[in-house]
Amino acid sequence: ITGTGEALTNVSYLNEYDVKEGGKVVVKKVNLLPEHVQHIEHRYTKLEDKADVEYINIELGGSENILNYYHDLVGQESRMVHDIAYLGNKEQKFDISMVMSHGGKKSFSDIHTLGALSGNSKKSFRGTLDFLNGATASEG
């Protein structure tokens, strides 16, 4: 409910993380939005040398969940782990898109997804590992 008493129908997030050399970031997010709310999230992460990032998403609420993640591993020995868990029921929709772009040498990325759907709920997942020129000895 907004401050005017009107029902909220849409929530949009745009997050950008610029993790400097040697930095460590852990972000945990739990989506408990009401079942009538559309949820849109765009997240961009840039990792410099030896940066270490872990994201943990638990997606339970919302009617239509559109999640777009772009992780840019430009630094040497940068590390990104993204865990997503979802539980869909009724008519819920989950549209998940993730890109791991490896530009730095010896960079590492890992994507974990775990979920269950019931009723008429639907999920689509598109994951891309992009190893750019210079990303020697990188893993994903």
UniProtKB/TrEMBL annotation:
<dbReference type="GO" id="GO:0016226">
    <property type="term" value="P:iron-sulfur cluster assembly"/>
</dbReference>
<feature type="domain" description="SUF system FeS cluster assembly SufBD core">
    <location>
        <begin position="14"/>
        <end position="139"/>
    </location>
</feature>
<dbReference type="InterPro" id="IPR037284">
    <property type="entry name" value="SUF_FeS_clus_asmbl_SufBD_sf"/>
</dbReference>
<dbReference type="Pfam" id="PF01458">
    <property type="entry name" value="SUFBD_core"/>
</dbReference>
<protein>
    <submittedName>
        <fullName>SufBD protein</fullName>
    </submittedName>
</protein>
<dbReference type="InterPro" id="IPR000825">
    <property type="entry name" value="SUF_FeS_clus_asmbl_SufBD_core"/>
</dbReference>
